[in-house]
Design brief:
Blueprint: H1 9-28, H2 43-60, H3 66-108
Helix pairs in contact: 1-2, 1-3, 2-3
């Protein structure tokens, strides 16, 4: 984080905490992979992070500069928007994984795996 962007060290440290919560929320909405490259969906964790950021906003009202308040409001608003979209992203990922598993099963076990009739042979 660019220290020069913030007015002082306390502001920089505050936003390090804000950004940790933002990254956690994004990871739990499947927007960022974890350190091992896996995608997670845990909307309870996401909601907790957003609620904590909203509490910071309420508790710091009047103590933030205009720039800091704008940044915090923007982060919270964007996370809330992505939170609403998260279930659809999760369903799409699950559908993609399910389809991928079906294709994999077809190739690994062609006699018993799912298959489509390609030709219509008459008996």
């Amino acid at each position: 984080m660019e220290k020069e962007f913030f007015d002082d060290d306390m502001s920089a440290h505050f936003f390090q905490l804000v950004l940790m919560l933002q990254r956690s929320a994004m990871m739990h909405m499947g927007l960022l992979p974890d350190s091992e490259g896996r995608v997670h969906y845990n909307l309870g964790e996401t909601k907790a992070a957003i609620d904590t950021l909203s509490m910071f906003k309420d508790k710091t009202t009047g103590n933030l500069t205009d720039k800091e308040a704008t940044m915090l409001n923007g982060i919270i608003s964007e996370l809330q928007l992505q939170f609403v979209k998260a279930p659809a992203r999760q369903r799409a990922l699950e559908d993609q994984v399910e389809e991928s598993e079906a294709v994999k099963e077809t190739f690994l076990n062609p006699k018993e795996g799912p298959a489509e009739i390609i030709t219509d042979e008459e008996e």
